[in-house]
Design goal:
This protein has 226 residues and is mainly alpha-helical. It has one domain. Helices cover 71% and strands 0% of the residues. It has seven helices and no strands.
């Protein structure tokens, strides 16, 4: 073999296949762990849901405990502001001025903190959890479908937590009925996720957000001036 021939350098006889092809790697790839996109994607979603649930609990629990004292004033004002914001969001979506591009694979801890705080406000009577979270996710540049997907996923641990809170703070709800209610809600909610996602791919969210915003605004005005 001529000097410098690859087979000579590797110590492989001429004409023989490389017996260890899978172990011959480029130096820069040695020590680099394999990348699993699907595993990374699931981990990102789980982190997002864990953060949103934690923020919702931190903000929502104290708000829930004092909401009875401030519901008449703060609740109505918050409803009005949220309703107007949702109407503005629906207008922007309808006019095509806002075209989100981000999916659930691109959400960040910052998104989780913001959306979790918005979800916590749903303890105020009259505010829609779904409407709030979808509207906030849209403002975070998520696509219409992904906003619905993430809102639905966020609602599962939030609903379970709310049920457990009601179980521990209520004197009228027995343990057995409360557990049955929580389990039933979890099963029904999980079963309807597929239908909700299919619906989200076929329709625009502008009418949904507008209807929710109009209902919240009207309820706030009635509460303020009744």
């Amino acid at each position: 073999l001529p000097p410098g021939h690859p087979d000579e350098l590797e110590g492989i006889p001429p004409g023989h296949p490389d017996p260890l092809p899978s172990f011959r790697r480029k130096p820069e790839s040695i020590g680099t762990p394999p990348v699993h996109p699907e595993r990374s994607r699931r981990a990102a979603i789980l982190i997002f849901l864990a953060l949103t649930t934690l923020v919702t609990a931190i903000i929502g629990l104290p708000l829930y405990l004092i909401v009875g004292e401030i519901a008449d004033l703060l609740g109505s004002v918050a409803m009005l502001l949220v309703g107007l914001a949702m109407l503005a969001t629906a207008f922007v979506i309808r006019c095509g001025l806002w075209q989100g591009e981000r999916t659930r694979d691109h959400v960040t801890p910052k998104d989780a903190l913001i959306v979790g705080a918005a979800q916590a406000l749903a303890v105020i009577p009259g505010l829609s959890r779904t409407g709030l979270t979808v509207a906030v996710l849209l403002t975070r540049d998520c696509t219409h479908r992904e906003a619905v997907v993430l809102s639905v996923l966020m609602g599962i641990p939030a609903s379970i937590g709310a049920g457990l809170l009601a179980l521990t703070t209520s004197d009228t709800i027995g343990g057995g009925p409360a557990v049955v209610a929580i389990v039933t809600a979890a099963i029904v909610g999980t079963a309807t996720i597929r239908a909700i996602l299919a619906w989200a791919t076929r329709v625009t969210l502008a009418p949904f957000v507008a209807a929710a915003g109009a209902a919240v605004t009207l309820g706030a005005l009635i509460a303020l001036f009744a």
